[in-house]
Specification:
Layout (H helix, E strand, L loop, with lengths): L12 E11 L7 E13 L3 H15 L9 E2 L3 E9 L5 E13 L1
Antiparallel strand pairs: 1-2, 2-5, 3-5, 4-5
Length: 103
């Protein structure tokens, strides 16, 4: 996964999309509900391949947690979709995940 693609980046590829968090403090436990979007890209002629890749990424992230590095609850996939990109050249997949992270 890359932060930002270049024109020379070969299809398919994934980039980090928008992210945000909101406070979720309860019972004296500091916590954040973190939302992260993973953007997937392929050429417009490979929409079916991108749909499969989007499903694979969503399946891989559903329920994942890194409890060695963080005190976090398992990830929830809250959105997965594939759409034609307005550039007329590519298709765009989106996988949005949320996780409660304590700290």
């Amino acid at each position: 996964m890359i932060d930002k693609a270049m024109k020379s980046t070969p299809y398919p590829y994934a980039t980090l999309g928008p992210s945000y968090w909101v406070d979720d403090i309860s019972e004296c436990i500091l916590a954040r509900d973190v939302t992260l979007q993973i953007d997937l890209w392929d050429s417009q002629v490979n929409k079916g391949r991108l749909e499969d890749l989007t499903d694979d990424v969503a399946t891989a992230l559903r329920g994942w947690s890194d409890t060695d590095a963080l005190t976090m609850h398992p990830m929830r996939v809250t959105l997965a979709r594939v759409m034609d990109d307005p550039d007329g050249v590519s298709v765009h997949g989106v996988v949005q995940v949320e996780a409660l992270v304590e700290g």
